[in-house]
Amino acid sequence: MFKIVKREEMAEGTVILNEIEAPLIARKAKPGQFVILKANEDGERIPLTMADTDPEKGTLTIIYMVVGKSTALFKTLKVGDAFQDVIGPLGKPTHLEKLGKVVCVGGGTGVAVLHPITRALKQIGNDVTCIIGARTKDLLILESQMKSASNDLRVCTDDGTYGHHGFVTDVLKDVLEAGDVKLVVGIGPVPMMRAVANLTRPYQVKTLVSLNPIMIDGTGMCGGCRVTVGGETKFACVDGPEFDGHLVNFDELMLRLQAYCEDEKACYEDYCTLRDAS
Q1: Whose CB has fewer CB within 10 Å in the chain, the N or C terminal residue?
Q2: Sign of dihedral through CA atoms 210, 213, 218, 224?
Q3: Is the torsion defined by CA of 205, 108, 192, 214 positive or negative?
Q4: pLDDT band at 174 (very low <50, low <70, confident <90, very high)
Q5: Residues 6+ away with beta carbon under 8 Å from 218
Q6: Tell me, what's the pLDDT at 89?
Q7: What is the pLDDT of residue 15?
């Protein structure tokens, strides 16, 4: 069992932070890697990239949005409760290299995934500009943490309630126009990552994205997380989750992510009906 030692509700309660006791994982985990969690014996296995780790305390931090039955079940867990399973670290860590000017772009809960990567890139001497965005100010997460993790933080909201009024790609274009960007890391909703990759392509700036396909076992055995990158089939759990954004087939990825939307919606509604009736 993996006990929750800290819990925080963010973004109007739609996003939850859990700090979890997992000393073996905390000692080995690196930026960009993920874990698979299960709430209880009947729960579903959910992959989540770690937002932070503390090897000394023996804890890892996950941040997730409540979007379906399993994440709604996760939300019911309080401080002192425990996840039945936390498996990891899984996936390949981010390749960290001193390059010069680096831009990290995050949207929604992708900001949580981006946090340890941004911090690590800065720690090894890169000049890191970070651009984060959300639909509205109340849905923005980890602003202070991202400010500390970067040399220059720029904030966007789609509705203009805070920071730049517009998309993260608007600000990214300005930074690219200024020149000398060596690397862009974009993590967030698939349409955002595709837009980032499309924007950086004519500038010929290497662009990494972190993919979130349907995943089951996390060890490359089931093939559920297959994605097409550069015309080749890759498994996000063992070959990723990070890939060259200029080579990812985003159309295929979006179709696969939509495959079970109706089933997921029905399952979530049934869970909420039973929960509210009890």
Answers
A1: C
A2: negative
A3: positive
A4: very high
A5: 34, 36, 45, 47, 87, 90, 237
A6: 96
A7: 95
> Can you tell me which residue has the tokens 């993920």?
34
- C-alpha angle with apex 107: 153 to 119, nearest 5 degrees? 45
Question: Whole-angstrom Cα distance, residue 129 to residue 151?
Answer: 6
Cα(179)–Cα(213) distance, integer angstroms: 33
pLDDT for 263: 84
**Whole-angstrom distance, CA of residue 148 vs CA of residue 151:** 8
Per-position b or e across 61-92, b if 16+ CB within 10 A of its CB: bbbbbbebbbbebbbebeeeeebebbbbbbbb
Amino acid letter for position 260:
Y
Return the bridge partners of 181, or none: 101
- Measured in residues, the chain has a length of 278
**Tokens found for residue 109:** 């809960």
φ, ψ dihedrals at 68, nearest 5°: -155, -170
Residue with tokens 């941004």: 118
Candidates 24, 1, 15, 78; CA nearest to 48 is 15
Question: CA 65 to CA 91: how far, in whole Å?
Answer: 21
The helix (H) or strand (E) run that includes residue 34 is: strand 34-38
Least-confidence region, from 3-7, 41-45, 103-107: 41-45
